[in-house]
Fold this sequence. Notes:
Helix content is 21%, strand content 26%. By secondary structure, the chain is of the alpha+beta class. The two termini are 41 Å apart.
Amino acid sequence: MNFESWGRFPVAEHQNVVSPSTHREAARDLQLQPTPLLPRGLGRSYGDSCLNNSGTLVSTAHLDKFISFNASTGLVRCEAGVTLEDLILTFLPRGWFPPVTAGTKFVTIGGAIANDIHGKNHHRAGNFSHHVRAFELLRSDGTQLLCSRTENSDYFRATVGGLGLTGLILWAELQLKPVQGPCINMESIKFKNLDEFFTLTAESNEYEYTVSWLDCLATGRRFGRGVFMRGSHSEATAKNPDKFFHTGVAWKTVPFEMPDFVLSKPSIAVFNFFYYHKQLRKHARGVQHYDTFFYPLDSVSQWNKIYGSRGFLQWQCVVPAGERGEVMKEILA
């Protein structure tokens, strides 16, 4: 059976997929499989990190239960298949939010640990693993290890960002962050070049969340232009409880695989032009629902079909602050 990553490249053929519902079933399934094993959450990774060509995938789809929650401290223990969306819908009405979130809420807790995801608050909160207190790891030989920074710490460090190669996470204990409501006070600022971008970055440390979009195809005097977005959780509480939930399903969908020319350089240049100019003012302020601020693409079902048959690879990097100008210019050139 074939599976692909969210970027639709590569496609891998697997011998089997098992989906245990209990920890006992998971231990049994792992020992019965004759081929190499790899855990899989919701498959939202780019590249091949959620694929196991010619092997067996261990789905955490049914390991999706909450185990315990401390309403005073915000410490939650849940199984690996619980998603960020599950956390938000369950605990945001109680005043708690994931400490770090990716650009989609359709990510499992096991996947968030295995990829050590980061979010818009990386400059203040660090990676997802900074907020993980402990987890239980099931090894392929049936051994179950309680892992934390003080117990089986080598396995803890190897599993964080380990892409599932150390075993299957059964459950994890995670520290949530307190918030007042579902809204974000946000600002969107257009910048003309990289110097303006670096200035905005330096001035925005007080904001919980920052992210930027750069027009990578702009040249000449437009080189390095983009939009800088920053925000923090609003201190206003929601008067209407329904405001916590925004929408639970995607209201738009990409019904078919797009032709490859849709992501061609000319079409992307047109998109970039309109995206940059859709904000008429240089500096816009407003209040956004968390779903719009963090997860704009979650409202479009199967949007990865836009990548076409060739698929898409995402490249990320970290550069030294002292060399950021030259490195960014080299990347964009």
